[in-house]
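Quick start: what a row looks like.
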Amino acid sequence: MQTAPPCHAVIDVGTNSVKLLVAQVTGRVVRPVVEKSVQTRLGHGFYQGMRLQPEVVLRTAEVVAVFAALAAEFHPASTRVIATSAVREAVNQEDLRAAIETACGLKVEIISGEQEAELVFRGVTTDSPVAGHPLLVLEVGGGSTEFILGERGFIYFRRSFPLGTVRLLEILRPSDPPSADDLVRCRRWLKEFFYRAVHPKLQPLLGSFCGRTVKLVGTGGAATTLARLQVGMIGQAAEPLSAHPLSAQQVSAQAERLWALPLAQRVKLVGLSAQKADVILPGAAIFEAVMEDFAFDELAVSANGMRYGALIASAEALGHRASLGCDGSQRPLFGASVWPPQHDKARTPPPHT
């Protein structure tokens, strides 16, 4: 009788929500067993003083404890708590570390933006419809957006930018319903940000693929929400989200539609969860801006993002320790092939063979 592959668990503490993924992992194949998400909005009131608010810290720790207990029911070989943008920028990040450890006994790993980008790429490239292409992967989160350019298991460029849905919502504060000027203001802000911060770093690398098509892939809540809105479905798709690419015209139309509706009407849209009904406004605008700025005609969407990459890394680390006969000391999550080694230097990708 064949033994089922072991489960691994990851709890992702993001700027907008806390997410749990428990899955069986075999090599690079991740089979979800349970997925949960609860909005705790760590980024609420955060960006003025870069301080996590006490009530939000407590609420987040409580949700992590609930998820840890749920994960334990599946007897996972490993359980990790990974914190991203808001926590790594917070002046009081130790408050959250202590609250979570007190609530459930788990230690929190606060990963860098570049580490987050690597895990995102590892996760997305398990999605077979997109895995065989040169990719520009975009994970739009609550506090940051990760850009990763790579192919065939190599990363040519990875960078985390201070651009996220909660962050942008706190900066722009659109009215409800949003006015036409609110959308104009958001688009202008994004255009200036991309021109100043993103385009000079990324465009030379995109131009070095010698006519080969680079596929744009979005992952994270904003991307999957846009895909679900487009096909008008609720919850999990009957087929992978990567089977439903969006054209640039569709993304722009979604942005126009969403920015024209009050919150009370957006929450009724099929495919849009109530906890994402406010942050989808900047989310849609960010994807629209990327497609316009870098002239992408199509956006593929993958649900296999950072958490998938983290589980693969956890399984690999556990297998490595077992092969060495090591005890339970943790091996780092990271170690994928990054080309060039200095990720922030623009270098021409190696020739396609």
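That is the whole record. The two ends are 42 Å apart (CA to CA). The first strand starts at residue 7 and ends at 13.
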